[in-house]
Amino acid sequence: xxxxxxxxSIITYSYLTVLIIVFVIYxxxxxxxxxxxxxxxxxxxxxxxxxxxFIGLILASIDFAGINEKGNKLTKSSIYGxxxxxxxxxxxxxxxxxV
Length: 99
Description:
Layout lengths: L4 H26 L8 H27 L10 H23 L1
Helix pairs in contact: 1-2, 2-3
């Protein structure tokens, strides 16, 4: 199933917007009066948000890779290009943590 670029962009930006709003609401609920969050008690929820943000990164990368393609449909090459951009970003961030 290959989507229109316009529909895929709407899905991607809607997903990211909802995810950011939910994360902000979550952060307001778990933060104390000094705006600090105890990581020990919230590690499962935070890892869930990291996973969902990584899915958003993949969607945004595919959308970004499809900009240069001609036509109105996403192609396999734009999907593979988006996945490679997301993989590069993930590897780059992991290398920044190591160094």
